Structures are given as C-alpha cells and as structure tokens.
Queue: 2 jobs
Job 1
Amino acid sequence: MVTDTPTADPMPPTAASPPPSAVADAVAAATRPGPAMLSVTDFSLSYGAHPALKHVTLEVPPHSVTAIIGPSGCGKSTLLRAFNRMNDLIPGVRTEGAIRVAELDVRTADVVELRRRVGMVFQRPNPFPKSIYENVAFGLRMLGLRDRGELEARVEASLRHAALWDEVRDRLGRSALQLSGGQQQRLCIARCLAVEPEVILMDEPASALDPTATARIEELVMDLKTTYTILVVTHNMQQAARISDRTAFLLSGELIEHDETGRLFTSPRQKLTEDYITGRFG
Amino acid sequence: MTTEAIGTLLRPLTKTLGRDWAGKSLQWLTALAALLIVAMVAVILGHIAWFGAPTLTWEFLSTAPRQGMTAGGIFPAIFGTAALVIIMVVALIPFGVGAAIYLHEYARPDAWFTRAIRFSVNNLAGVPSIVFGLFGLGFFIQFLGRNIDRAMGLDVVWGQPALIWAALTLALLNLPVVIVTAEEALRTVPREMREASLALGATRWQTIRNVLLPQAMPGILTGAILSVARGAGEVAPILFTGAAYYLPYLPTRPTDQFMELGYHIYVLSTQSPDIDATKPLLYGTVMVLLLLTMLLNLTAILLRSRMRARLAGRT
Amino acid sequence: MAPSSGSTVAAVAAPLPRAEFQPGALAPYTGAARRRSRRVREAVIAGVLRVCAFSAVAGLLLIVVFVLREAMPVLFDAATRKEASLRAYFATSMWQPVGDIPKYGILPLLVGTLKVVVAAMTFAIPVGVMAAVFASEFAPARIREMLKPAVEMLAGIPSVVLGFFALIVMASWVQSVTGAHSRLNAVNAGLALGLGIIPTIFTVSEDALRAVPRSYREASLALGASRWATAWHVTLPAAGAGVAAGILLGLARAVGETMIVLMASGNAAIVSGDLLDSVRTLSASIAAELAEVVVGSPHYSTLFFLGAVLFAATFIINVFAGLFVERLRKRLAGA
C-alpha cells in the first residue's frame, strides 16, 4: 500500500499490511489542518464475516477529481459509499478506522447533515417520479425551504450548473421520467447540487449512458471540480485518464496505489497496477 | 385412490377403448371441476340478479321499509352500512399503514418485537368472525363502554351495542388485510428511490412521506378498498355489537345502533313472519350488497393489476 | 468550510458564465438547532409508528384476554359451575341451555360442527384442488384468464349471501334430490360452506402448483410421460405441502364459519350420524343464543367458552398450515 509521502525505500512488490510508520504518517497528515478535503485512515469494512475493504488509507485534496479504478468486486463502490455512510443501509456492516470529510468524523457526525454535504450520483439515473422542478427542489424542501422565489432561483441555478437548464427551462413541470438517460443523469446531478454539497461522489455515472451523453457528463465533471471535490468510481480507465487529477487503484479491498493520474498511468509504481492498466487481468 | 389403482380397475376398458383413457378422463375431470365452479358462480349471481334487479328502483334505495318489511326500501340499511364502514376505515388506515411502514422501514427482522407483530398479523387473520363478535361484546361494550359510562357518571350510554364499537371490531378484523397489502405496496417501491432520497440528506420519515408513500399509494388504496368490501359483508362481528333490525331513526351519534345490509339479509331470511311477502325486499337487499362488494372487489383487482403492470413495465 | 468557499466563489465567478448561488446561505436550514429539532421529530414519529405496529399485537392479546375473561367462570366460579362446567358439558348429550333445567351437553354441537365440516371438505377439496390442477397444468391461457376472475368473484360473495342462497334456493333443490326430511341439514350447509372455502383451497393450491419449477415438468415430459401423468405423479406431489396448507386453511375457515351454518343448517342440536339431519354447530349456537342471554349468567359464560374453544381450534389448524407453508418453501428453495 502506498501513501503520497515519497520514501527512499524500494516499494514492496505485493500489497501487504502497511508498516506502522506509514499509518502514523497518514494519521498525522489527516489530522493536520491542511488542504486535505477527505481523508481515510486505516479504514476497513466487512459485511458480516466477509471483508470488503482492508486498511485503506487515502487523502483527497479539495477541488480535485479523484478516480477510483479496479476490477469489479474490488470494493470501489463500497469505499465510495463509506464517505456518506450509504453502507449503513446494509445490515451487518462493521467498520474500523476513520474517515474525515472536512472537519467531520464520518462515524460520529449527524448522518443526515453528512449526506447533504456529501452528495451522490448513482450508476443508473434515479430521478423521482415527479416533475423536473420538484426533483431539483426536493432536497431544498426537505431542509425546510418554503419561499417560492428562493426555490425557483435555486432550482434554476442548479440546473444551469448541471448544464441542463437550456434543455428543460420550458418544461419544468413535466415528469422527469420523460427525459433521456443522459438528461436524467444531469438532472440527478442538479438535484444533488441544489443542497450545496462540498463533495460529490459519483458511482460510474456514465456507464449506463451512450457515448454522447457520457462525453457531456465528463465535461460537466471537469467543470464542477472548481467548486466541489469529486470522487468518481469508474471501470473505464480511459475515462479515468481523461477526467481525473488523481487516481486510486483498488484490488480485493486493498488500496494498491494512489497517485497523480498522469504518473499512475504512465509509470505506475506497483506491478499490480501496471498489470491492471495493461489489461493483464480484468 | 391412486391413479395406478384407477388404472388397474379400468384396464379392461382401457384395452378396448385405447391406451390413455384413464388419464385423459382424469384430465377432463379437472376441467369439469373448474367448469363447476364457474357454473355455480354464474347460477348464484344470475339467480340473485334475476329476482333482485326488478326490485332496484330509486324508491327502494332511498326510502325506509314499511309494513313489516314487505314494502318500501332499505335506505336506512344502506346509510348504516356506509356509516359503519366509514368509521371503520378512519380508525383502521392509520394503524394499518403505520404498522406496515414500521415493518418495512424500521423493524429489525430478528427482533422479538418484529416477530411478535408478524405472528399477531398472521393469527388475527385466522380468528373466526364470531370470535370477533364475542371480543366486541366482551371488550368494547362490557369493559370499555361500561368504564366510560362509570367515569362519566352515565347510566348506560357507551356500555351497550353501538355504531362505534361495531366499527372498531370490524377495524381489528380487517387490520391484517391492510397491513399486508400496504407492506406489499411499500416493497414495490424501487430501492433506488429510497437511496436517492437519503443520499440527498432527507431523513427517514421525509423519505417515507415524500417518496415511498406516494409511490405506494395504489397498493395502500387497494388494501383500503378490500377492507371496506369485507367490512360491508361480515355480519357475525356486528350481531351483538350494534346492528339492529328496525330503527325509526338514522344513526347520527357513535352510540347509536344502526341498520345494516348484511344483518338485514340475515334477519329477513330467518325471522320473517311471512317469507314470501318479504322476498322482494330480501332479494333487493341481497342485490344491493352483492353489487356493492363486487364493485369494490373489482376496483381493488383493477388497481392491483395496474400496479403490477406498472411494476413489470418499469423493470 | 464557509471561509474557503468564499474565496472559491470569487475564483469561480470569473471563468464560469453561469448563475451562481450564494454558498452558505443555506446555513439557517442546516444549523444545530434545526438538526436537534429534526432529530426529536424523527424519534417521535418512530415511536408513533411503533405504537401502530403494536396495535396488531395488542389486538390479538386483547381478544385472548377478554374472551377468556368472560369464559373463566366456567372453570373457576363455583356458582357458575353448579350449572355449567366442563363436567356438565360432557355429562349429557342434550344441548338445552334455555329451559327449566338447563342442559349444557356440547356433544350435539361438536357432532354438528363435524358433520358440516366433513360435508364441506368432501365437496371443496376435490373441486378446489382439481380446478387448481386444471388452471395450472392443462388450461389454455384464455380459459385460465376467465377462471381466475370467477374464483375471485366467488371469494367476494359475503357469507351471509351464501347462507341466504342456501336457505332460500339450494335447500329445496337439495331436498328434492336427496329426499331428506329436514329441508335444512348438514348437506345443505356443507355445500354452501364448501363453496365459501373453495376459493381459499383453489388459490393456495394453484400458487403452490405454479411455484413448482418448470424443469420438473420438462424432465417428466422428456421421459415420455403424458401431460396428465406429469401433473399427477410429478407436479402435484411436488406442490403437496402447499396444497395441504391450502386445505388446512380452508378447514380452519370451515370450522369457524358462522353465517352460512346459522342460516342453512337447521340449528337443531341432534346427535346422529345422518348427514341429512338438521344440525347445530358451535359457531351457530354462539350467534343464535348470545343475543338473548343474560350477561354474566352461566349460559353467557358457556358461550364465551365455546368461542374460546373455536379460537383454539382454528389457531392450531392455522399453525399446522403455517408449518406446511414453511416445508414447501424449504423444499422449493432447495431444489
């Protein structure tokens, strides 16, 4: 397992339990009031007896796009969902270690407030069977916003921010289910933006979409990173290379390597990473 | 008798008539059974419609009975049935839907409380309707009603057969129906809806109220309609909890007694001094009750099939 | 996070020509006070829902408690037991609770209930199960689409209407066919009661049959067995537990049913083996006599006791039905 801090020692060829010094470094880095927006410290998660994440340590700087890649079943989605505690919905989940989002400790924070500040976009677009307007306004209404003027202004702002406003401005009252797949996904992003999160988690946001829609989503992600910190899980390495600043490679629940995207794809430090990137295993 | 035994008995016939005779005839027998069911339903409904339809005049539906139940109409019974069912639904739906929400969203599957609820729901559904009548008498009237009278210093107002006690008895009788259909309706809401709502920072109850319940509404409505159909048709629970044969007034207070369609049919059929003179009124009453329950059941079935079609079309 | 977002807004405003919102303006909605009141509200609602769920448990408990409460004197109260007690129930074979010397022999009621239930099940089991086999194994889709609504309509007929039909129409027909001397008898009530429980037997059996995996049937047909042989030797046995559950559920309903027997069975408390005699069942006795009884009298307590017996009997049958459903689920899941 590799952290960001460069060391002079040669890297071990296979993933192993992090040496105590590396963990201590990561803990120190996480608790420093510094630039890290998200920090994961020796985090492990298991569903009952089955371990899904093992001793993951990771830091994510603000206003960046971090891609999480790895073969299916490696724990990418589980790691993503750990940031907004969506894993809590599964009975029998146990966790160890710490995750911090800004100043919040994920485990002790108020989960409702955490989920507002850490938004999520899902693999398949899941708009509510309500109007476009009501979809975007949903989160705001749940917070207690009642003033129509303010709601309308915020709905418009969110739809603009998600690059959907021009396409739907005349039919806000129509059902969201009438939109195309790509539009629905942008609607879900707008819905998420409306409650002003600081982090956006995206779980394979374009995998259910056609290439044109995918391109628009990718463009949107790169726009959004100036305002938000974004984590994108993807099984598409080219996509990761295109849109992300940093990339993390997960295998069987362990974080193998985590580095600047350019460096990880051109000169990976771990052999496993290189094998995955070159397609030696899927 | 196994098919082999039948085959052995029929073997001589089989030899002459062809190999599969025994089997084929059994196959036709099952068709006959199905035909028998359809025929009996047709006969019953047809017979009642034949004799009952001519009596369905506006006068019949809107006036009170006269001349010892041989003339006039059954409006009070219709009114009483409606009042009974409305109070029942108002009492029943909050508890039934609330229980279903609890089971779907909050309950842990292995907790003893959850298992107690499921056990109770299953067994409430199997309690004979006459036992509900006994319960209504023993609990609502003799215990609750009497104690209310005592607390309010009254003589006998609540501690006797009354509309409210009959309605509450029926509400308990129909509780399993509503809980089961409401829970089934909640289960049809896709998980992604729930996840999307929670991920936006909505609380559990906000998710239930704004996402789950609206989508589960058709199913909940189905349960409500089915409970109304059953509530209108069950007579045993109201025999001693409030139904009356002839009242010169319409029930306006919860402590009033009431006339009711099913009870009316029972008494007219079994205790009428002149059954032939009363037959028109009797057939008319049966017709009204049948139409009411059939219509309600049909609506519930249509709602349910539309819900299932929507579910299938979505996946 | 608020301070840094201020500077971010300034950085964003330049390159992006889009409408901005003011980050941090949502603060009044996300403050600690709001969070606390929200948590309180959620807890209260969860508590209310828990109470609603408890209503089912409370209801069942109350039924047990209050039916037993009114029946207790039969077992424990000396004054009541002089007239009506367990010993009195079996000391005589006459049921005559209203009279100069009240007699509480329940044998006629037990015999009556048995006769009606036997008549009903003899009619309903073959018809219900065979129709289910037809619907699930042999019927073309169009006929099946007509059969299911017919059964649902039958299920929707209130039992008081079935009782009415049996009393007014069927009794004469049955009498002319069988030559019975009582117009209202166990056969009459049994037929109507059977009609009432056929939907239960049909629906549960058909569900069980349809749940049998296609592979069973295909394997049998591939071996050269005919469709009827497959149905009888393979599919029906595989669904056996489900069919048994359906029959048991029908039995429970038959034992507890009141209105049909009250109207169509004659209500004569006779002990005889003849199905064409008039009978009086437990449920009908309760229904017929409770209206006239004096609250708290031995007769009153006896009727409640009979109700408790009915409750216990149907409860036990339902428990067995549940066991069979479990067995079916396990068997099909393991397949």
Job 2
Amino acid sequence: MHIHAYEKLWLAAAIALILLLIGSVTYGAVGPGVAMVTDSENQIDAGGLDEDERFSEPRVEQVGENHYEAYVVAYQFAFDPSPIVVPEDSRVTLYVTSRDVVHGFEVVGTNANTMVVPGEVAQISFEVDEPGEYGVVCNEYCGAAHHTMEGKLHVVSQSEFENRGEDA
Amino acid sequence: MSRTETTQAPVDEAIDDEEFDPVGTLALIAVYFAILVLAWVYIYYIEFLGRDLVVVG
Amino acid sequence: MSEALRAEQTFADKFPNEAKVVRAAFLGSFFALFLGAVFGIIQTLHRTGIFRGFIASTDYYTVLTAHGVFMVLSFTIFFLVGLFTWAVTRSLDRPLVNIKITWTWYGLMAAGMTMAGFSILAGFTNAIPVSADVLYTFYAPLQAHPLYYAGLTVFVVGTWLAGADWFRTYLAWKRDNRGERIPLQTFMVLTTMIMWYIATSAIAASILLFLLPWSLGLIPSVNPTLTRTLFWFFGHPVVYFWLMPAYLLWYTVLPSIAGGRLFSDPLARVVFVLFVLLSTPVGIHHQYLDPGIAEGFKFISMTNTMFLLLPSLLTAFTVVASVEYGARRRGGTGLFGWLRALPWRDPAFTGMMLAGLMFAAGGFSGMVNAGMNINYMIHNTLWVPGHFHLTVGTAVGLTFMAATYWLWPQITNKPIYSLQIGLFQVVLWFIGMALMSNAMHAQGMLGVPRRTAEPEYSGFDYPTAFGGFEELNLQIAIGGTLLFLSTVLFLGNIVLTMGNPKVSGIAESIRPALSGPTDAPQVLDNLRVWVSIALVLVVLAYALPLAAIISDGGLLGPGVGTYPVWLDGTVHALAETATTAGWMLVDSLTVLGAHVADTLSGVAP
C-alpha cells in the first residue's frame, strides 16, 4: 500500500505525540505521585449509613501526627460536614459517600475532585498548606435543586483547629 | 456559480496526480503539531501540576 | 440511456424511493435540531444569568435532558441514517433491497424518539405523571418513567434494522460483483454500523436487564456503578457514530467540492478500521474519578484512548491534502497561498472547512479529558461541554448543515433558496461557537461545574484567572445567541428551499480518489477479521472491570435506593405555576411537529 512520504512523517509525529501524552500521564503518576480514585474501599449500604462507624457521624479526625481523615456524606442537596475544617500543613484523606444518588465532590479551583456513588466510598488524599477557604460544589446532576448543593473546606491554623470545638 | 465549474473541469493527466506533494498540508499540520505540543506542556506541567490539592493517595 | 445523459441525473432522478427516505430522515433530523436549538437558547440565557424568566431553575434539568437527547441522539442519528442511505445506494449504484424494510426502520426510529421525547417534555407539567429528568446519561439511582427507556430502546432497534438493511443491500451487490473492492462509501457505512452494533449491545443490556424493569417496579434496585459502566461502554463509541458520517463527508464529498480528489482511499479505509477496533474498549475514560473501578483498568483505558487519536490525526492530513490538491488544480501556489484558490463562497465547502478547523481545537481539549490524572482538573466542569460543542456541536453539526447545502438539491432536484445566507450562516456558527466554547473552557479551568442551572454559589467566589466569571458568562450568552440565530437561518433556508420549484441540470458528481481502492490491501475489506479483533479488544478491556463491579456490588447494587424524580411533585407544582402558559405553547408545537413527521414518513412509494 502506497503511503506518501509526508504522510508517513506525520504518522511518526502523531505516534510521538501520543507517546508524549501517555508519558506525561505516567510521569504525573510516578513523579508527583498523582493517584486516581480507585476501588480501595469496600461497598457500603447507602440506606444504612446511620449504622456505619464513620458516616453516622460525619467529622474530621486526627489519625496520625500530621494526618487527618474526614468522613463526608453527600446527599440531596448538601454535604456533611460543611465546612470541613482541617489544620494547615497536613495530609488530609477524605472518605466520601452518598446517602441517595450519584453526586460529585469538587473543591473549586483545585485538583481535588471525585464522583460520589451510593454504595461506594471514594477516598482521596492530598496535602494542605496555608490557611484558606475553598468552596466545594456538587458537579454531578443529582436532582431538582442540584444547583444549590455546595459546601466548604476550611484550612485553618493549628491553634484554630484545636479550639474549633469550643464555639459549638 | 463556482460550484458547477469545479465538477465540469477536466480531470488531470495521471502524471500530475502521482507527482502531487502536499507541501502546504505538511506546513499547516506542522504548525498544528507545534501548537498541540506547546499547549499540552503548558496545561499539564504548569496548570495541572501547579494547582492546589493534588490527589496523591 | 447514454452515459452523458446518465451523468446529468441527480440522485433523486435515479433513485426516487431512496431519495424520499433520505428526505424524511433529514427532516426528522432538522426537526430535532429545531427543538434542541430552542432549548439551547433557553439554557444559555438561564445559566449565564442573563434571563431566567423562561423557566424555573428546577425545570432547567428537563430542558437539559431535552437539549441533549434531541441534539445528540435525534438530530445526529436521523441525519446519519439519511446520509448512509444516500451513500450506500449511490456508491453501490443500486436501490435498497426492500424499501418496506427501510420505511419500517424509519418508523421505529420516529416512534422511539417520539416516546422518549414525550416522556421528557411531559416533565414540564404536573398534569401528566410522566417525566425523564435524568439527562442524556440517565445515571441510576435517578429514575425516569419507563416510557423514556422504552423509547430509547425502540429508537436503537430502528438503527439496528437500518444497518441490516444496508448490509443486505451490500450482500446483494456483492453477489453480482464478485471480486470487486467494497466501494469506499459503503465500506464506511458498514464499518460504522459494526462499531455501532458492538457499542449498543451494552446500553441495550443495561436498559433491558436493569433500568427498564427497575422503572417498572419489577426489580428493587440497580447497581449504579454497573449501569454507569454499561452506559459509558456505549457512551464513547457513540461519539464516533456521530463523527464517522462527518468523516465520510470530509473524505468522499469535500475533496470534489474543493475541486480536488481524495488523496488516499486506502488510508481512509485504514482509519475506519481503526475506529472499529479502538472506539469501544475505551469507555472507562469517562469514569476516571469513579470510586468503584480500579486504577489499573483506568490506565488501560487511557492508553487505548490515546491511540484512538491516531485515526483522527491521520484524517486531518488526508483531508487537507485532498483539498490542497484541489487548490493547486485551481491554480493555487505557495506554501500557504494555495488556500486563497479554494471555493470559499460555497457554504458547503466553507462550512466543512470551518468544522474541521474547529475539530482541531476540540481534539486538544479531548486530549486533556483523556489524560487520566489531568482529568481531576476538569472533570464535570464546564470545560467538558466546551469540548463537546466543538466536536459533536461543530465538527459534526456544522458539517451536517454544510453538507445539506450540497446534498439537498441532489435528493430533491431543488436548488438551495439562498447560498449567500448559507455562507453567512456557517460563518456565524463558527464565530458563535468560538466565543461560547472558548468561554466554557475558561470557566471550566476556574472550576465552574457543568449541568447546573445556577453556577453561582453563595459560599465562595470563583478565581479570576482566565477572565472573570461574569465576563465569561456574557461571552457564553453572546456565543449561544449567535448559534441560535445561525440555526434559525439554516432551518429557514431549508424550509424556503422546499418551496422552490424543481429544476434539472443540478447533478453533482464525485471524482475518484488519487490513490484508489485497488491500492488498498485486500485484508482491509475483510470485515470478519476486524469484527473479531474488535470483540477481543472489548473483552480484554471490559471483562475484568465488569466482573469486579458485579462481584463487589452485586448485579442489583449494594443496598441502594430508588429516586424516582418524577414523583417530586411539590417542587414541580411551585415551578409550574409560573411557566404553564409558555409550555402549553411548546406542547402544541410538539404535537404539531409529530403530526408533520408522521405524515411525511407515511408517504409510501
């Protein structure tokens, strides 16, 4: 089959481009260590979250010297807890599930983003640095009031984090 | 209209056809390739990896 | 009849029965485009906050479901079946085997789309206890009325029968033409349909085994991850079901309009074979952020997807080379100067060229979507609609409109009412889409979510990196308005064309390729080989993920409830009071339109 020399050149360039893309993604996974949302958590009964040790009381908990876990429930039409409060300069692991339909959990303007599927627990971990406030939106259509579904993520100073229970 | 002209124009001799080198295409597609590579490098390494809250676990 | 006289005959002259089918299919397509455009302008003004008086925000999702289904299922696929009927008949130079079967599949498609469309539109009023506010992706546990799922099924079965019709016609031709290469257009139709059969098997399974029985109350629940995965098994190849007709036009019609010839028939075949192989084992790239699927499967999907870029990149070269050939024959010179020698006053030409140009940009945003980890940045943001309005919206939609200016006279013997308006219309589309899509991509980079009636939130402000949120909203609204105007001009032009008298002497022909089918290796025409490989690849990509999903969560889901959105009467009641009058008008137009479509499709030879 006759392929013109220029088209052969383009074919080689196209394959090089494809390898650049695959290589970049692989670098992202290996270098900075970007990890995809995966099926690491067990299934859960979406109708029985009240009996679940983590999700019956959505909260933030310290689990290591600088490691905090947040158990987040998404439902029509809010996130619990909101705001999710974590201290600066720490590693945060979110466990997010849904009581009802499929939702999204997106920390606006950042790379923290996951689908939230009833019956599944989505787990994502990231580092937080300086204090600040982030908005959280549900970015998957979940019903008639989907556009009102939002939350907050607050990164606060260490002292503010330790004193946070006192205002409740 | 110009359209009827194109379909009634005589078909070229075979010799011309086989010697056709699409240099213009090569030039255009080289420009496109360059744009793609630069845009990708920017959006992946600078935009994406430069953002807050990169998921690492 | 002498050769010279035959060359003067249009498609409508040679194949009047098939021409009727093509016309009916195009009219169904354009009716869907009309409805989709009306919903589109409502959406664009509502979402951007420019005007929220047409509908309540809770009804936005009914509008969005209608816009999605009418545009990407009805407009595109009705056009495809018309185009493919023309292409098969023309390239095999013989009528379809049984025109009654043809009208049957057309009727099934029309019936199915009417059922689905009715179930969606009924969601605007509480007087009818039917709705389908589940969007074009209908993710469980959100549930639609059974009529929605049943309608989509009937529609797809219609397309299956259409494929069988074309395959039968091809087989009849093959018996009479032993040893000949499959004509290129028919080859493209057959390979596209093979891909479609594989793709729709999963969505048919999802609907028939799970979603439809569940909506009828026959099973208590479904597994959301399983039904999502089956949807996206279909949801990626469907974009190639939209694209491949556009490619057929770019490869086999555009070169002749440009005054040139297709640069390489064999490479066109290779591209379509690559789509058969690679379109299906990639659906998981729509689920990169799903918690129920392992990262390893996502990585495999990513590499398959990146290789799926290859047929499109090859198409760019071959199509541009074919057009350049035409430019040089017309006297064009220079490295870039040859572009000036092309027939830019021809709306069919300019429309397809602009569509291709826009596709080049859409390809880039698609690479970002496909890049697994970079998907975190833009998943479910407005970047995604920005991307697909470039691809299905323009590469496909604009190509279909542009091609109509060339093809409609061939199937009706009527010249287009105004080619100048046609030219203005295609350029207007390009400008409107450039504005709207660019702003959508930028808002996506700010984190603005898609699929939402009101993207402003009380608790935070968006970052202002790529132009402010408000300025970008204005840009989206302006772009969307230009697109709506462009659509009205297109539809008006066709309606006025229908009132034109028939003429003779407007037949167009297609020039043979520079490198013809005999230059292509025989194996390319061996469809059985490609089907087998495609099935193997699909099994490799999906067997393990599906097995894992089913063993983890069960066939019917891990303790998940049912959310029949159509029972949410309270919210609807509040919204309905404000908008009843407007929607009664839409309902009447819908009924009228259905009558028109039925009447046209009922015209038998």
